Amino acid sequence: MSGETRVLVLGASGRVGRLLRRAWFLAPPPAIRPIYQSRQPGSGPDVVWRPGAPMDDLPPTEAILALWGVTSGDDLTQNAALAREAARIASHIGARRVLHLSSAAVYGPGCDGAHEEDAPRPTTPYGRAKVAMEREVATLNGGSAHTCLRLGNVVGADSLTAALDGTVPARIDRFPTGAGPLRSYIAPGALARVLAGLLRLDAGSLPPVLNIAAPEPVRMEDLLRAAGRPFDWQPAPPGAAERATLSTDRLATLLRGALPRSTAAEMITDWREVRPR
């Protein structure tokens, strides 16, 4: 892809969006010009806009990165509606591709090296809502290419964040192996580089779904140790999954080996450099 790619980032004031904005501010991605959307003017977006509002003020861009979504509560069906809205925006502003933020939760607990071709088996309302969103995306047609990004845990944007910040005490499930949960994570700076790399590819070169994570999973207790945070062990409850990991082979092939391998300590360093002060 030649020249500058303008990218409309929907949901830029969310947890992942704030980290991404900071990462791209500190290290501007070559050939990418992000334009950030938020519903609230106080969050410093380039564009203040709400779903359902007239689109006349939305700028033309080559791509859309749809980070928005509902993660909890009674309105999880809005995830599919927001995917349709992103497609409608793309048609209006002429974007050739849309990257929709999905989740590793579509695979369900206990997945180990889950591949994009594996059948989704969600067990939580959030996971089922993301599967419904992906199915909605699969029905979209028109002039845009659509890809659902099945994102693993993001350091600084998941359930461990408050413990990493030191604002709450940490308790980690201990499994019969003596270890805690093993999860596919990615640090925010690495995520920013991965997304920029995908956005620089030709619009039609991405698959319908794509796992996003660092190549090697990490233990949650290792992230806390790397951050210098104390924690207490608790017995893993019945049904808890020690492993929930993703295959990133397809992502590595697309990025031609540029997917960084990150230890827990490297992820914490990345997060501390990127997190808003």
Summarize this, please?
The chain has 277 residues and is an alpha/beta fold.
Overall description:
It comes from Poseidonocella sedimentorum. Residues 74-178 form the NAD-dependent epimerase/dehydratase domain. The protein has 277 residues and is of the alpha/beta class. It has one domain: NAD(P)-binding Rossmann-like Domain (Rossmann fold). It contains eight helices and 14 strands. The longest helix is centred in the N-terminal third of the chain and has 16 residues, at 78-93.
- The CA-CA distance between the termini, in Å, is 34 Å
CATH architecture: 3-Layer(aba) Sandwich
Q: Which of globular, elongated, flat, extended, rod-shaped describes the shape?
A: globular
Largest sheet: 7 strands, parallel
The computed structural class is alpha/beta
* The CATH C-level class name: Alpha Beta
Number of helices: 8
Percent range of helical residues: 25-40%
Low-confidence stretches: none
Return Rg in Å. 18 Å
SSE string, helices as H and strands as E: EHEEEHEHEEHEEEHEEHEEHH
Number of domains: 1
Instruction: Report mean pLDDT, rounded to a whole number.
Output: 94
CATH superfamily: NAD(P)-binding Rossmann-like Domain
Domain NAD-dependent epimerase/dehydratase: 74-178
Organism: Poseidonocella sedimentorum
Protein name: Nucleoside-diphosphate-sugar epimerase
Pfam families: Epimerase
